[in-house]
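Example 3.2
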Amino acid sequence: MAKEESQLRLAEVVSALSYALDLTDGQPAGHSVRCCWIGTHIGKAIGLSDSEMSDLYYTLLLKDLGCSSNAARICKLFVTSDHDFKRNVKLVDNSLPQLLNFIAENTAVSSGLKDRLQTLIHVALHSGTIDRELIETRCERGAEIARRMRFSEPVARGILDLDEHWDGRGQPMAIKGVSISLYARIALIAQVVDVFHRTTGAHAARTEVRKRSGRWFDPHLVAAFEAIADSPAFWEGLEAPDLDQRVFDLEPGDRVQQMDDSLLDDIADGFAQVIDAKSPFTSGHSKRVALVADLIAAEMGLGTDRRRTLTRSALLHDIGKLGVSNLVLDKPGKLDGDEWAAMKLHPTLGADILSRIPTFAGAASIAEKHHEKLNGTGYPFGLGAADIDLDTRIVTVADIFDALTADRPYRAAMPTDKALAILQSDAGTALDGDCVEALKSTLDRMLRAA
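Structure, written as tokens:
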């Protein structure tokens, strides 16, 4: 591992990648980082140990790790943007009038009257079951991914319990009181504070926390937050332009974890699962692209270290799609102008996230350019061959091959030979001919050996 990678801290990688979770949860950029600032101050106020603070720190940054897994279901049930739905639902306290208003204002908003009424009736009649299913999917999936990324069981449990409420009326298990993970109890307060602070200010955030004390929130933790909230420095820090660095510095000093290649691989793999969970049509896509890219790279004689770095980049190449609504991603027909414009944003969204980590500079470039073509017909910038490096060319071929051979909302999967024929027709013009030939050669060899 290069020197700069050996000095890379887990906190740096996770805090940067948490911006991807903000995208898919419909929150303003930095939501997870701001929640970490809020929650760690509560943790310090109640006297948590360094070990406990470390688990709380990662729970706060990763609390939304499973949030992409229910996006497609939300779009299908409510016939609305998953991003809008998720952003707006965080302003609801589950009282019946607010719930009814929320359902009315966030269901089938672009549909005709008849379809809208039918959808509203269905949602109203099954709201309890629907809520439980959506939250259960998100929380269980998030905890599972956290475990696979080697975070502790208390972190996984904190993610799992995020939507449980102090009075037992939360989801999905309706557990109550101290049976709920302490880290989840803190994270839920932090989430509400950030949402209301960003929406209507500090006073509104404090009022909302008081209102939910004893219902949603542990009163002891509310008291701790109230004491913190009396300090102007707390709010100034929350709004500071260098908040990322401040949160990075909050990681308990004796619990700092340096990254190695193996852990970096697991973190990339975990976020690939978040990306692929966004749509039923992309299940396994990132891993397959990574595998095909590695096969191409090996056939072309690239070294082991470069192939490992390329595999991570391929796993994360579509991270920007977390910022695209499933109304667009899963649309069965042709995208209109606005929808296509939204889709074309995902390369730059991905690059913005990955460029926060210097070690991921190559991955950021691949995320940004993997839809560019050598003849200038790609997007988002219409770059030409001189601006597209070999690693990006490899991922582009792997990405197109997997897209052609997998089911999509607008067509069924193609046979391998037909997909290869399409790639070969573009070889030397839109696509790198050597990469296409390397893919064909390695697939032919695999078929002969089968």
